[in-house]
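During the first year of the project, the team set up a workflow for recording each protein of interest as an amino acid sequence followed immediately by a discrete structure-token representation. This format lets reviewers and collaborators read both layers of information side by side without switching files. As required by the reporting guidelines, we include two representative entries from the current panel. The first entry is reproduced here exactly as it appears in our internal archive.
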Amino acid sequence: MLFNLLYKFKNNFLYLFFNKKRYELIINKLKAKKKINIIFLTNHISQWKYQILINIFNRNDKYITKVIFVPDNNYNKDYLSEFNFNKIEFKKINIELISSFNHATNSWCDLDNLYKPDIIFFSRSLLKSKNKYSIFNFMNSLNCYVPYSIFIDNNDKLQCATLFHKLLWKQFLPFEDNLKIAKKNYNAYNVVITDYPGCDLFKLKKNSKKIWKNLNNKKIIWAPHHTVDFINHKNYFSTFLNFFQNMIDLSIKYKDSIDFCFKPHPALKEKLYNHKDWGLNRTNNYYNFWKNSDNTLLSESGYQDLFIESDSLILDSVSFTAEYLYLDKPYCFLTKKNFNYNKSLNIIGKKIFERINKINNIDSLEYFIKNSVLKSDKKQLINQRSVLNNINVLNNKNLLASKNIYDFINKTIKS
């Protein structure tokens, strides 16, 4: 009740006007500072899209950066186990992850008071937070946001036009279509189009560390979405329950020529634990098959290096649909019958969906593997390049999105 009243009070023209003026005052203060404290809030390695950006900031002694892990019950209600897992993963990319929980005092840290951030980067939209990590808790900083994926599903207001988004200093979005989507929901005065930082690594790095088991095999990633709850609800794209056995069968059939990686959405395991036909044991056994077989992998962490080394992607996870275009490799989207994709996709998703491979049965999937992965389908790759060039027209020079963001901020607070 109280939150709803506050929401109505703050989601009005007058409050938003004064919020904009507050940022102007902060900018003037930052112009006089010699050192700028930047905090990146994160809640899962798979949603970390700031690696290139933090590297660029770290090259300038003016900026002091920290990455802080905040709780997110969408993935794991056990904060300590989730932090420990992510701490190891972030260490692999040379980041010392900081906990937002103080075990000495058995309390959640007041990050604004403890670190006095000048700039905050959010990884998810945080409006409510029982642990003081919503946008309302950072009133003395320039609050920034890059979405954790290139959204192509039809959920426009939730993804770019909630009160959280309106209260940001800047939200850095990938494409011109994102600006059009935002403007349909509010004036979008704080939107800056930069391309997508999560794909910067694909522009910089063509080879990656060896994470596959059989280096001479072709390498296919299967990335199923977590929305197994309902079959035909809007935005419930998952085909996992249709293809889970087919994918095992394919991995066995092609064991001498293809390595398969099971890359599930982080929320899928918990959904299967609670599914009436699955449960704990069946889910764990299924995941263990991918972890332990001779030509299969289980990936539950970051994905950029995995994508770089792959030859193809099979997915129904909309988070990756636009990102994989940057790699110029064949991929296909698994569909299900009697599902209204037109209703469930935004304008970006519709443009991509029109040009990529779509498959809804095992025979068509095997045809794709034989003719686009084991062989080369140059026509389809041309289609994919065309759609990326079309939606990313403002970055035709292929500049790093992270550099675009850095330059924008550096110029803004330059004295």
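The second entry, processed by the same pipeline in the following quarter, appears below.
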Amino acid sequence: MNDDAIAYPRDLRGYSIRRCIGVGGYGKVYEASVLRTGELVAIKDLEKRKVFETPGLEARVRAEAQLHSLMNHPAIVKMHTFFEDSLHVYFVLELCPFGDLKKWLSSSVLSSSMRTTATTTTPLLPPPSGSNGTCSDTEARLIVKQVASALAYLHETLRVIHRDIKLSNILISKIQPLTVKLCDFGLAVQATDDDNIAGADRTLCGTPSYISPECLLRKPHGFERDAWALGVVLCALLTRETPFSNAAAVSGGRVDAALEKMKRGVISLPKSLNERGSLAKDLVERLLSYEPERRPSARAVGRHPFITGPTAPITGVAKLPAIRHETRSGSIEITPRGDVVVRLGVGEEMVIGVGGTACTVSGVPIAWNELPPRWASAYSYAAHFIHIVRSRTSRVTIVTDRCKAILMESREDFVV
């Protein structure tokens, strides 16, 4: 339990129930206020009759309460306290008033649970600002950065695998800045050995659209299954589609055929993902690698150039060799004088000057930190490309009778 758990009553009579904000198979979630302080909270109310009728569910509910009580992270919904009476089990949780990402993406109009009611007024939530109801790059990177931070905490500090990462388990707590929190630890489990494996558990659990191939094959699973699900989330934020839904559509709507494809690692990324830039697609593809060990860790996701965005101007290019690299949508080139040229299409060109701060887009001068989203993404990709070239370019070479050591331009890598 959190340190302030003593401030929250462990009796339903200590709360004023305001309205129902969610309905599930085993109970409901209510917005409520603490009578003593007036603080708004969420109360998840599970009916014991339904819980006890389902084999293994009572133990899972109690395990969820025990695990959730250990968690303290800004991107995870806080559990204030947990109690029960003869008929119900109650989780008193931090209130996130703007609903979940699935509802946010599904419609540009507010759901009934987010409208003004007789008892409370919830601030309006603007729809995603990308085209066709998708998230903008800025919104997507903000969301994924926060969820990745929460997962890094779960994986590294608590050794917990969430096992049900999905849009509806990511809640919006603030609009400005866009702030999200991970919730629902009903399927979470702690890893039990050094290989990050959830014991001998091969139970097929989770939501079909988000389940990784190794889980579909009932293999022992580790933290990497959460990375796969995060890739599905990012794909959905950028396209409003998941690889699973796209595979089902390609298979004529047959879910079983789509699942078989997922087991074999045959995923169908939405074509619209190509329009979101190379960096976004690169991160999605890395997270959706068939081999679990090839997926980036949650911490590495936070360092990916799509997530970090252009945080500093590109410098030191003049020391690198001239090189040209073709991409799916254009090319990137380091010129002999140290400029970086990014081409996205016929006649579409950005030239990044030697100092990295002055750019021209199709002949129009513009500062690096004032680039429009499409070209800002291209600038980030250029920075990532420069980092790769720098890491493969020797700076200092030392040769002795016993070894050869090369210090690369990145100042990070020695080859001995």
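For the second entry, the following points were noted during internal review. The longest helix spans residues 137-158. DSSP finds twelve helices and 18 strands in the chain. Both points are flagged for discussion at the upcoming steering committee meeting.
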